[in-house]
Structures are given as structure tokens and as C-alpha cells.
Design a protein that fits this description.
By secondary structure, the protein is mostly helical. The chain contains five helices and no strands.
């Protein structure tokens, strides 16, 4: 399950409550702005400027458990890095940090 720009100024509190019951690994697969804009133009199905806007607004909190760089790393390397972190749940603090900032209650996870 992915959430683009999930935690922002007005979070989806119902989704927050549902996710609190599960371990949540927040991963931001990204790259530098120049590469984002190049990919945006190459795809041809994106509104020009959308990549810049999303980078500035949808990911403004910058709190993630892992941030693989899809410009410097292959898809396989990013996947291996993510898979490696799946075994180490104690190293997933991002959701709790985000919930402390944007959430409204502290429920225990199952």
C-alpha cells in the first residue's frame, strides 16, 4: 500500500487510526529534481510542473524510514534495501513520529 503525500497539514485521520493497528514502514523512493523533471517530460502523460509541485508540497515532512535514490540506485538495489529493512521493525520510527505530529490519539498497535 502506498500513500503519496500522506501526512500533510490536514491528515487523513481515519486512515491514521486504521494504520495504527499495524507496523508501518514509510519509504520515499525519490531522486533529484532535475531527474524528476526529465522523467516527467519523457513520460509525456504528466502535467509539466507536477513533479516540482509534488516534491515541494507532498513530501514536505521528509520523515521516512528509508529513502532510496532511484537515480543513483537500480530498482533491484532499492528493492533489496527495502526488503532488508522489513526484517528490522524496531528501525521503523517514521510513522510514530508522523503520528505524534499529525495524529490526534495514541492507540496501541497490534
Amino acid at each position: 500500500m502506498t500513500f503519496n503525500g500522506y501526512f500533510e497539514e490536514v491528515p487523513c485521520l481515519e486512515t491514521d487510526r486504521l494504520l495504527r493497528k499495524y507496523p508501518v514502514l514509510f519509504v520515499k523512493a525519490g531522486c533529484n529534481l532535475q531527474e524528476l523533471e526529465r522523467r516527467e517530460r519523457k513520460r509525456g502523460d504528466r502535467q509539466i510542473g507536477q513533479a516540482r509541485w509534488q516534491r515541494e508540497h507532498m513530501h514536505s515532512h521528509d520523515i521516512y524510514d528509508l529513502k532510496p535514490d532511484t537515480f543513483r540506485q537500480s530498482a533491484d538495489e532499492c528493492a533489496r534495501q527495502t526488503a532488508g529493512l522489513l526484517e528490522r521493525k524496531a528501525q521503523w520510527p517514521a510513522f510514530d513520529r508522523l503520528y505524534q505530529i499529525y495524529g490526534d490519539t495514541k492507540e496501541e498497535r497490534g
